[in-house]
From TrEMBL:
Biological classification of the source: Bacteria, Bacillati, Actinomycetota, Actinomycetes, Micrococcales
Keywords, ordered alphabetically: Amino-acid transport, ATP-binding, Nucleotide-binding, Transport
Residues making up the signal peptide according to the UniProt record: none
InterPro entries in alphabetical order: AAA+_ATPase, ABC_transporter-like_ATP-bd, ABC_transporter-like_CS, BCAA_Transport_ATP-bd_LivF, P-loop_NTPase
Top-level lineage group: Bacteria
SUPFAM superfamilies: P-loop containing nucleoside triphosphate hydrolases
One family name in Pfam for this protein: ABC_tran
Entry keyword annotation includes S-adenosyl-L-methionine: no
Family under the similarity heading: Belongs to the ABC transporter superfamily.
Protein name: Amino acid/amide ABC transporter ATP-binding protein 2, HAAT family
Length: 238
């Protein structure tokens, strides 16, 4: 079966420095693939390559079998790939509703509207008329995810959605993700919290200095193996 999204031998970097090295993987419809790795491992760069925001130096990105390597980010968004970047990047002077509606710009058909986004992310229900500048970090993150959903993506790329948030807010966001992933949406997730990643992911790819050093399902990989991969040779308990 053709994968929803595939990276084929992708390398990418900045000038002479290589951030992603010869990475390959596939994401099936409805699957959550987690990219795990320490700071600087290349996870955000890889997400940007998948989104069309960073050109790989080598390799290909395929969407439903079509080569989209040279398709730019805005066009790739129209084709169904949506990046929710680290740092949220909302429009502070717009209301929550307006920020969500900005996400619908590409006008793909699908189930996501302001109403269905609020169903999936209930914390937004009372906030639609509020300016984004007046939101807590968790509320902003929920808007950023909701804005991504409004483009009716087939692939959602989530970069550190829980960064800086209180555990209770992260719990709420992850509970929402469980409802979001139905309907064949593929998710590529970058998350610092290994425990949470293992709980939510169908498959893990552990990155070290740009390379994929370990891959498999949470059932196949021991915590020790994931931790060793995360830190290189160093062993830590978690
Ligand atoms: N704009 C940039 N210019 C130059 N080098 C960069 C740039 N962005 C990232 N890098 C470098 O590329 C490598 C991979 O960075 P990247 O942000 O992809 O890693 P990451 O795994 O997402 O890290 P983090 O968890 O800290 O966000 C790092 O060595 C980083 O310093």
């Amino acid at each position: 079966m053709t994968a929803l999204l595939a990276a084929e031998s992708v390398s990418a970097g900045y000038g002479d420095s290589r951030a992603v090295a010869d990475l390959s993987f596939e994401v099936a419809p409805g699957e959550v693939l987690a990219l795990v790795g320490a700071n600087g491992a290349g996870k955000s760069t890889l997400l940007r390559v998948l989104a069309g925001a960073h050109r790989p130096s080598v390799g290909r990105v395929l969407l439903r079998g079509e080569d989209v390597t040279h398709v730019r980010d805005f066009e790739r968004n129209r084709l169904g790939v949506c990046l929710v970047p680290e740092g949220r990047r909302l429009f502070p002077s717009l209301t929550v509703r307006e920020n969500l509606e900005v996400g619908a710009g590409s006008r793909r058909d699908g189930r996501w509207t302001v109403d269905t986004v609020v169903d999936a992310l209930p914390m937004l229900g009372d906030l639609l008329g509020r300016n984004a500048s007046q939101l807590s970090g968790g509320q902003q993150q929920a808007v950023a995810i909701g804005r991504g959903l409004m483009s009716n993506p087939e692939v959602l790329l989530l970069d550190e959605v829980s960064l800086g948030l209180a555990p209770i807010v992260i719990d709420e966001l992850y509970a929402s993700l469980a409802t979001v992933r139905g309907g064949g949406l593929g998710i590529v997730l970058v998350e610092q919290d290994l425990e949470r990643t293992v709980a939510v992911a169908d498959r893990l790819v552990c990155m070290l200095e740009g390379h994929a050093v370990l891959a498999g399902t949470p059932g196949e990989l021991s915590r020790q193996a994931i931790t060793d991969a995360y830190f290189g040779h160093e062993v830590a308990s978690w």
